[in-house]
Amino acid sequence: MQFAIVTGESRGLGEAIAKDFMEYGIDVIGVSRSGSEELKKFSKNEKADYHHYSCDLSDSAQAKECFEKIAEQHFNKETYHIYLINNAGMIEPIETVGNLDTEQVTKHVQVNLVAPIVWTNSLLSYAETHDVKLTMVNITSGAAEKSTPGWSTYNSTKAAINQFTATVAAELETKDSDHQILAYSPGVMDTDMQDVIRSAPKEAFHDVEKFRQLKEEGQLRDPDTVSAVLMDLLNKPNDIENGKVYKLYDLIKE
């Protein structure tokens, strides 16, 4: 039996990824503050189930407890493959350093960085005592390689998640493990996060007009397209380079 744990599955890319897994007959376990009615309806027409677990990913203790509950209620001796898609993320605070809100920064780091580390750690710990293959995907961003005024927190957490991915891969290699971990950079998509970006004031986000223009010119990809590219990659496990950051634009060119 296979499961796909998808954080932030209630909308956007997470919802699209969850649908794709169910179309492949893989049960989806969604983790977010609110579930998706769309996924509930969708699962009724597929050969896979959708289970939602309510969890505030800004609370690392709650995230760990949520995983333990999932493992207890779903994983068993018939489970042979688990996917973990660390998709949940936030862009806020969009603000220049010196004007950042401390509470927002703390929540951002918890959701974008600490939660993926906690979930990955929990899953690998589980795998140490169970014969289960793991495939772990961290959703990252091109922002990890940039210094964007107003995005200091976002740039930093995405750079950190890339380095975390590479480090876990290096550790797996030293153990001669067959588990896989990669990062996936989806480019700019037409999601709620883009709405937040476009609504930022110019003084907080210098490049805001560029993102408004992308929307006006129809240059934002839809989440379904982005998810399909990721699924194509996951369907070729022998071609996956452990620890690599895969960028949508490069995969499309290939």
From TrEMBL:
Q: What species does this protein belong to?
A: Thalassobacillus devorans
Keyword Cytoplasm attached: yes
Membership in a protein family: Belongs to the short-chain dehydrogenases/reductases (SDR) family.
Instruction: Read off the InterPro entries from this record.
Output: Biopterin_syn/organic_redct, NAD(P)-bd_dom_sf, Sc_DH/Rdtase_CS, SDR_fam
Short name of one Pfam family: adh_short
Gene3D superfamilies listed in its UniProt record: NAD(P)-binding Rossmann-like Domain (3.40.50.720)
Q: Which UniProt keywords apply?
A: Cytoplasm, NADP, Oxidoreductase
- Could you tell me the superkingdom of the organism this chain comes from? Bacteria
**Name by which UniProt lists this protein:** Benzil reductase ((S)-benzoin forming)
Cell compartment(s), UniProt: Cytoplasm
